[in-house]
Design brief:
By secondary structure, the protein is of the alpha/beta class. Helices cover 38% and strands 19% of the residues. A five-stranded mixed sheet has the order 2-1-5-6-7, with helices on one face.
Length: 226
């Protein structure tokens, strides 16, 4: 058997021992307090970034590009894995979690600028991001490196996903939608692994957000105010 799997199973045994009694309150259902939409990236520690070790506390979704959008026969719709906890478990907070150096945003940027081709499965995911990032290319400041352009578009992508949730009639009233960026590349001022709030309910102005949320004003920041 693959050594990595053996190691993972050993670690799982430790996990199971530590969590033996932590599932008692969620045996028959779940009422998570937040749903997070993260990018499928091995560097994005989806539950660990929140210090979460409580089963049932956070409903974690992930996909390429931290998308809330899926394509249906009727057109674009809120992805079912995001909508489910909002519709059926009473969750009233949705957090879109982008991250610095995002490979999905990089691939979309390359596809829009150079016509990059990917295998069909990846092309499908990039194709879902393309229409939401195209407008951002025209707004990018001049003279950015490729890496800087990508990190600008990481924020732009989070904003568009937040916007899609806010404008969807499928998302129940009263759900708060927040956009954040997980930084492990020293793009923002702070420690590696910190989450930086960039959008709350569609508001993107940093000073406005800091005034409205003084308890977390040091965690509110953007690299791009467009």
């Amino acid at each position: 058997m693959n050594r990595t799997l053996v190691e993972l199973l050993h670690r799982n045994a430790e996990h199971a021992s530590a969590f033996q009694s932590r599932f008692d309150d969620v045996q028959d259902g779940q009422r998570p307090e937040a749903v997070t939409v993260c990018c499928s990236d091995s560097r994005v520690l989806q539950d660990h970034m929140w210090g979460n070790d409580e089963p049932g506390h956070v409903f974690t979704c992930s996909n390429i590009g931290n998308r809330v959008v899926q394509r249906t026969e009727a057109g674009e719709a809120v992805s079912g894995d995001v909508l489910y906890p909002l519709e059926h478990t009473g969750t009233d907070l949705a957090v879109v979690v982008g991250h610095t150096g995002c490979g999905a945003v990089t691939a979309t940027y390359d596809a829009l600028t150079d016509g990059l081709e990917e295998p069909p499965g990846i092309e499908h995911c990039v194709g879902l991001l393309k229409p939401h990032l195209e407008g951002g290319l025209e707004l990018l400041p001049e003279g950015l490196s490729r890496e800087e352009a990508v990190n600008h578009l990481v924020e732009y992508n989070v904003d568009r996903q937040v916007e899609f949730l806010l404008e969807s009639g499928d998302v129940p009233d009263g759900v708060e939608v927040v956009g954040v960026v997980y930084d492990f590349q020293d793009v923002y001022d702070g420690s590696r692994g910190e989450v930086h709030v960039i959008n709350v309910g569609g508001e993107r102005d940093v000073e406005t957000l800091r005034d409205a949320h003084p308890a977390v004003e040091d965690r509110i920041d953007r690299v791009w105010e467009y």
